[in-house]
Every structure is written in structure tokens, then in C-alpha cells.
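Please complete every field before forwarding. Incomplete forms are returned to the sender.

SECTION A: IDENTIFIERS
Entry label: holo-786
Bound molecule: zinc ion
Molecule representation: SMILES string

SECTION B: INPUTS
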Amino acid sequence: MAPALPFAVVLVRIFNFDDGNRAMTAPQAGRRIRMLGTVQGVGFRPWVYRVARDVAVTGRVRNDTAGVTIEAFGPASALEAFVDRLEHDGARPAAAVVDRLVAEPIAFEATSGFTIDPSTAGAELRVSIPPDLATCPECLAEVHDPANRRHDYPFTNCTNCGPRFTIVKAAPYDRPATTMEPFRMCAACQREYDSVDDRRFHAQPNACPACGPRLELRTAGGAAFKAEDVIAAAAMALREGRIVAVKGIGGFQLACDATSEAAVLRLRERKRRDEKPFAVMVGTPADARALAVLSEAEEALLTSVERPIVLAERREGAPLAEAVAPRNRLVGLLLANSPLHDLLLAAAGRPLVMTSGNLSEEPIACDNAEALDRLHDVADLFVLHDREIVTRCDDSIARVVAGRPVVLRRARGYVPRPIQLAAPVSQSILACGGQLKNTFCLLRGREAVMGPHIGDLDNADVFQAYRASIDRLSRFLEFTPEIVAYDLHPDYLSTRYALELSGVKAIGVQHHHAHLASVMAEHGLEGQVLGLAYDGTGYGLDDAAWGGEVLLAGPADFTRLATFRPLPLAGGDAAIREPWRLAFALVDDAFRGEAPIEAFPVFRRQSPVDLDVVTRMIRRDFNAPLAHGIGRYFDAFGALLLDRPKSHYEGQIALELNMAADPSERGRYEYQIAQRATPWEIDLRPAVRAAVFESIGGESVAKIAARIHNTIAAASVDVLRALSRQTGRLPVALSGGCFQNARLAESIVAGLEPEFRVYLHRRVPPGDGGIALGQALVAAAKARSL
Ligand SMILES: [Zn+2]
Ligand SMILES: [Zn+2]
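SECTION C: PREDICTED COMPLEX
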């Protein structure tokens, strides 16, 4: 194979226009314009060219590792119009995100025409590779047009759409640096690629049935499955209730008929996934509306170019198997994000479960051999193709909270779009993230690039994927960390990874401080905030697990001003897997050892021995570490009221309590805020007693669950108002996994606005998938003050 050029060398003389008499009369000037952000691989340069042609300026545009740089020459008025159009033109490519535009005067150069110059690799490397983009309407129309040469072609794309990040091997983004390099464009594709007025001008993954990637079908045993039409054969298998592994954009997915109880149960059994909800893929927004009640904001999120899985309220009577999302009022929906998915859905004619191609807790498979090896017990049929995936990227998850989108799992479609900080940092920082739902973050200058969602690091394969992902993204950005930031939990594998790196300064960051700093980073807040950091568990500065924290936080430091009264975890982590133990601790504390435990089935199910052991652990403070987490309170109430002794996945019981809560109920219970010492203690024991009496009295679970939510929200609002009398009215930040709970977030926002400015996560997950960004910000601030 001939060695690939380091970057595509193209020098295109695009057009000449007649300066005419204007050039004689108007004073000539020059501008250098730098545009930073997601400006490569999205049809940006052709657009710049068209704007230049419209306003009649000459010069050049090129991709470099800082983004796009333009040098333009012409009369001052034309240059002004040019810059104005670059900033405000409505025809700017949909997938482009311009974070900054800097224009500076340069000397006039007598050039003719406007050229697109070769890409250059600069010393100062920045991220400009776009995320993977969902199929655009024009490409989709071609795929469905029998007269088009791309009819039914599953790899159709253009400058506005198609795979990007997952196929890129190096920057700058040009075809030889992608996994499209082995495919030699046919004459027709090459013409499109070379023509500036074509939608496929410099579309790096450009392909057609004659020259591009191809599908292939295999059986579970790996044998070739002969089929005239791969899509039709796969769709037939799906309609018959079989499980099909599909090589998607960022890795393999497992698909089955979402309307078939038997098919979905079979998938659960084979994937060894008990109750965690599956996502459902549909072909069109109308198909989505048939399954869920969608607000305008939810529909916008669903159809956004990022194409995340959107959590929305399941429509009453929707034709979905119950096993898709047991006991859940929400359903995770996503639209087809590639022509392959679109064709498959059209052929199957029904919604499809589309879940990560892995066994529970393993990384998603992304290479053909790996998928055939690891998924042969799960899938009946494999839809493979020969376009390689470089970087694993799961489907992202998002939902609408307080009227606006929040990303809950950040991967395909969002990564590696950087988060711009308010101010640049002077040293490069690798933030290693946490243990659960791990992501990491590379911060340099003002740009924080978060890696794709990795998963829980308690599995050796996932940990291996984590290290590989850090290495790959670092290489890709030519990033060498000077500082490494990590969580204080000594047993997190991310912490161990950080402490084993040599030649870097290691800076530990408290878990909840990192949560709040992450909100601050997203919103460019540079001073102090009053923050609520509510989650299940995070390593505290004392012996306890924190997670119901009210902090006064700045970038470098924090003070713990208030926290929820802790619950003992009888048996440590066993109490998290078996939340009946938490429920017991909850009522035992509230009733000072005299709780009416016989009134609750969740306790009657336990053997006298188990009850006795748990009682002794709690009362003698033996193997019962304290936990302040709001997530633990929700677990405890959920286990008690819903009779749920065990949890099958992280956050399950809390989620079920949330699902059970009556949306219209406004009542709440009493609580106390003990202000004798710092931190203040928020004491929910009066609420626990009231809930227990109401439950025994026959009140509905829906009402009680709602009142518990309202109580925690009201206590949070009260404590913030009281604290702000001492701190002054600071911005309020909300972070932690509990703020995936829209009801909790929305009631706290409603209780504080408009007097307080309340900041929630938007582009970064509120859960532990978002702490790496905060770790990076805190480490930068601490390094400055060292
Ligand atoms: Zn397109
Ligand atoms: Zn072609």
C-alpha cells in the first residue's frame, strides 16, 4: 500500500472575478480571520468560499489545527460585510459551532479570486474534528430515491452529515487520516469531492455503491450468510423475533423487535441484563410520537444532529413490549442516525430495541472479529461492514429538564466537541474522572475535551478500554499532560491510574467539589457559588460517604456548609445492592429503635437472622459506614414503599420511586435544619415518621413518593436561602446524579428563581460522567495557587 500523505494536499483555484472599477476607487485592505470551534468536516470552507464570492472579496481559506483561518482582501466595506456574514449568516452549515471569531487587520495583497489552500499542521494544536453527524435530509432523500445512484446505499453521506470522530485516526481531518483511506473514490465520487459547488465538496467519507464500504451478513457461528439484500434479510430476521447485531457508527448495537415481549425477554436473558431499560430506535419523528408524548423541546432534541437517546414519557397504550423498560413511565427513544439504521427500520416496519453491543458491564464491541467473538451467544445474525471504527462511541442519552436539554451520557454526536472555558489554563491537564459511568477530560488552553462515556471501571476489560481511550485521544490531539487530576477515593481505578503516571503533578479533587466545578466550567462561572451536590456516594473528607452536600465552592476550594443527616450502610456496599437495609436504617433512626417494621412487607420478607444482623450492625456501629447521599435516601424510601428489597442496577430504586410519584401532588412533610455547628444538618426524621404513618394509614404510594420529593426540594431551598443570608446572594449550582431526576431539579429551580440565578448542567452529565470536567477546572485553580 502506498504511504498516505500526512494531510491532503489540495490547492484549488476556485474562481476569478473582475475587480472592475471599484478596485480603482475604494481603498484596499486585508483581514486575517480565525474561526475556532467545530469548523472542520462540516462543509465550512465551501461555505466561506460562497460568502467570499457573494461579497466579492479575494483571498484564501484553510483548515489548520486551530480551526479555520481566512485571509481576505478587498475594499474595507466589503471586508466588513464579509466578517458580518461569517458571524451571522443563516446558511452556515448546521453542524458547525463557532466558539470564537477573531479578525485582525493585515496588509493588502493583490490576489485574484478566492482559494481553498492545503490543510496545515500548526504548532498549536486544537480540536476541530467534529462529532459524528446524523444523516441530513438531502442524503436521506437520495437514499430513498430509486433513480439516484445512492438508492438504498447505507453509507451515504456529505459535508453536512456522516461519521467523523469515530473514523478519524489523526488531525487535521482529511480523508487519508480516516478509515476511508483504503476506499478509492470512483470518478463520479471524485468529481463531487472536487467540485466546490457540490454538497460533497471535500466530504471526507464520501462513498457510493461503486466505490465505498459494503455490508456483509454473518451467522452467529461467523459463517457468511448468503443474501441478495442484506438489509431485507436482517429485517426479516428481526420480524421473526431474532436478535441482530448491527455495526453502527460508534460500535455494535444489538437490535430486536421492540413490540415483541418474547424477543425483548430473550435479549435480556442473553445479554444478562435484568431490568435496566433498553433504548428504542424509530425511523421518523411521527413514529416517535406514536410511542411517547413529546414536548417541543424533546422533539428538537430527538431530531438534533447529535441524535441522542431521549428520555420521554411513554404514551399510554404505546405498542411496546413491557420488558423494554419495566415499571418505567419513561422510554428512551432515538431516531435512526445513519442510512444503515434508516434502511433497517424502514424494512423492519416497526420500532427496534437498539442497545449497546456488549454483555452487561463490558465495553461495547467495535470491530468485526471482536463482535463475532464476544456476541456469538447473544446475536443470531451479524450485520457487518468494512468501514473500520477507530474510536468506540456509545449512543448518548439526554433529556429535557426545566425546559432545556441535559446530556446524561455523553458519547456519539457530542464527543469530541470541546467545552470552552471562561479563561485559558497555562498547563495541560488530564482529569481521570470517577469510577462509575466514567469519562475523562483533556484540558488545554480554553478547551476542555471530554472523552466518550466509558462505563463502570470495575471490570478489567472496561479499564483496558479506558486506558486505550485516553491514549488514543491524547495522541490524536498531540496532548501531553503536565497535571493529572483524580478523585480522592483511593480504590477508584481512575485514581490508581492517575497515581501511577510518571512525570506529572498529581492533584486530588474532592468528588462533590468536582461536580459543582463542572457546572461552573460549563457556564463560565469564575467566582464562588452555593452548590447542591446530590448523588449516591462520593468520597468525603471524613470517614463518611458524602452525597447530600451543600457547598460554598470556588474553583480552588470549598467549604461544606450543610449536609443531610447520614444513614448507616449496614454491611457497606451490600446495603446499596440490598436497599431494604437502607430502609431499615431509615426507620430505625427515625423511630429511635421502635419502628413499626412489621407493617412493611419489605422487612417481613427478610429472615429473622438477617434482620438481627442488620440491626446489630446499625446499633453497634459495626460494618456500617455512614452515607449522606440523597440517592441513598431515595433508595431507602423506594425499598420501603415499593417493597423492593434488591437493586439490579445503580440508581434503580431511586428511579422507581421517582416514577411512582404523582406529578400533580404538592404536599410535603416536616424536616429540621440543625444550625448548631458547621456543617448544618438537614434532618428528615420528621418526614420519615410522617411517611410511615401515612403508609400504614393507607395513603397511596404515589402521593407519599411525591411528598418525599417535595420535602427534599423544600429543605434544599430553605437551607440555601438561610445560608445566603451569610454568604450573600451567590449563583446556585446543581450537580450530581440526583439531578437526572427532572422533578427534583425543577422543584428546586422553581423554589429559588427569580431571586437566585440557578445553573444546571446542559452539555455535561450531572452524574459521575461529568466530574472529569470539574476535576480539570479545580486542578487548574489549585495549580495556580500552589
Ligand atoms: Zn448529507
Ligand atoms: Zn463512488
